Amino acid sequence: MSEDSKESTTGKAHEVGHSADELTAETGRCLCGAVSFTAAQVDPGMHACHCSNCRRWTGGPSLSANAAGVVFEGTAYLTVYESSAWGERGFCRKCGSSLFFRLQGSDRYILNHGSFDNPDHLKVVGEIYIDEKPSSYDFQGEHKRLTGEEFLASLGITPE
Ligand SMILES: [Zn+2]
Ligand SMILES: [Zn+2]
Questions:
Q1: Which ligand is nearest to the CA of 34?
Q2: Beta bridge partner(s), residue 29
Q3: 103-158, pLDDT tens digit by residue?
Q4: Ligand 2 centroid to residue 6 C-alpha, Å
Q5: Any idea what DSSP says for residue 44?
Q6: How far apart are the CA of 102 and the centre of ligand 2, in A?
Q7: What is the distance in A from the centroid of ligand 2 to the CA of 51?
Q8: Ligand 2: distance of its center to the CA of 154 in Å?
C-alpha cells in the first residue's frame, strides 16, 4: 500500500519538448536564501553531467541549465571557486549550496537544477561525461550521451 500515495502526473512531462528557442525567465536561490538570482533567459533543456568534479561538488550527477541575463542578490555570500583551467563554480558560503558553473570570465551561466524555484519548467535532454559515470546509477530516456572528449569538442575545446 505504500505506493498509493504516488500521484498521477502523466501527460504533463511530455508536453514540454526541447527547443532551444523557447527560453524562459526563472528565479532561484540557495538553501538558506542569502543568495538568490533572476535569470532572464534559461534554456529549459538540461544536461546531466557525470564528471567527477560535478559529482564531488554537488553530491551527485549535476543537472543544470544554460542561462544568460543572470543577476544575483546577496553577492556578499556568493563565493566563486576556480575548479579547472577554464571553469569556475559559485556557491553560497553561508549554507554551502552549489549554484552555478561558468567558463571563467563569462557572463553565461550553467545554473544548478536544485536552486530553481520552479524546477518543473526544466527537463533533462542529454548527458555529458558519460565515460565518467559510476555504475551506481543510470538515467532512463532516449537522448544524447556524450563522452567528455565529445562534449569538449562540441564546445571547440581541445583537451591537452
Ligand atoms: Zn545560502
Ligand atoms: Zn561535470
A1: 1
A2: 36
A3: 998 999 999 999 999 999 999 999 999 999 999 999 999 999 999 999 989 888 77
A4: 31
A5: S
A6: 11
A7: 4
A8: 15
Give CA angle at 121 (119, 123), nearest 5°: 85
For residue 7, pLDDT over 60 is answered with no
CB-CB neighbours of 9 under 10 Å: 8
Tell me the C-alpha distance between 51 and 58, whole Å.
11
Ligand nearest to the CA of 90: 1
Cα(5) to centroid of ligand 2, in Å? Answer: 34
Cell of 105: 570570465
Torsion angle of the four alpha carbons 141, 145, 151, 154, in this order, in degrees rounded to the nearest 10: -80
Give Cα 116 to chain centroid, integer Å: 10
Q: Produce one character per residue of 64-85: b if its CB has 16 or more CB atoms within 10 Å, e if not.
A: bbbbeebebebeebbeeeeeee
| CATH architecture label of 23-155 | Beta Complex (2.170)
Dist. CA 116 → ligand 1 center (Å): 13
Q: Say what percent of the chain tops pLDDT 90.
A: 79
Residues 82-101 have pLDDT tens digits of: 999 989 999 999 999 999 99
**Side chain identity at residue 83, one-letter code:** S
